[in-house]
Write a structure and sequence with these properties.
72 residues, alpha+beta, 3-stranded antiparallel sheet, 2 helices
Length: 72
């Protein structure tokens, strides 16, 4: 992601999660063959333990709104 400020916020949100809800930020989910697998989404929060997608976003604006709603 070229937007470094948004990337920093996404990583801060991921660092704040814990337990079974621990997520990591990624643009390449482990079980996806490509963006077509996720309906054109490009930005993801993936559960660390389960390797399943917790949240997926098509645009940086969607990701920004999600983070803003959560105070990041």
């Amino acid at each position: 992601m070229k937007n470094k400020k948004l990337l920093k916020r996404a990583k801060a949100y991921a660092d704040s999660t814990e337990g079974v809800f621990k997520v990591r930020y990624t643009e390449t989910p482990l079980d996806a063959v490509g963006n077509d697998s996720w309906w054109g989404c490009k930005y993801f929060f993936e559960f660390v333990d389960a390797h399943n997608i917790a949240q997926a976003f098509r645009t940086q604006a969607e990701l920004n709104d999600f983070l803003t709603e959560r105070g990041f």
